[in-house]
Amino acid sequence: MKEQSSPIVSVVMGSDSDFPVMSEAIKVLDDFHVPYEVFLTSAHRSPERTTSFAKSAAKKGIRVIIVGAGAAAHLAGVIASQTLLPVIGIPIDATALGGIDALLSIAQMPGGVPVATMAVGKAGAKNASLLAIRILAVEDKDLQKKLNAFIQDMAREIEKKQEHLACRKF
Ligand code: RP5
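# 5-O-phosphono-beta-D-ribofuranose complex -> structure
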């Protein structure tokens, strides 16, 4: 990826209480040197701010939107309904229901308004950025190389763990 300073990914969250999970998404973007912005808005508590964000994102150069929200998590769907950009949703475990509420709210979109839904929590946040990077990599050879290196590193990690396990007595 060419060095760029203006953000091409938006990392959106419904509350600052989502940050501990969403920071996993941010770490991945940092590792891949993908420029991003972090934006706080709520579908229910700040609907006008949400609409204004969704309608202006593409114009300011954003290419993928990552959205984390918990509870009755309508944020990703509401944003997806007001932009043509790909939207990736991360269900956050924020209530007594352990994230199943957010998972269903984000995944069960009506036909016509797609939101790519990740796993609940930190793994979902990590994968949201990796999916965003895969989308960007379609037209970016440098990002393709970084993704391939990342995948090879993961495989090497498994082999190292195998060696470590083999040293143990069972
Ligand atoms: C959602 O409600 C947010 O995304 C958050 O996960 C959840 C709880 O928000 P707070 O009450 O902690 O601000 O809108």
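# post-check
The chain has a mean pLDDT of 96.
The first strand starts at residue 9 and ends at 13.
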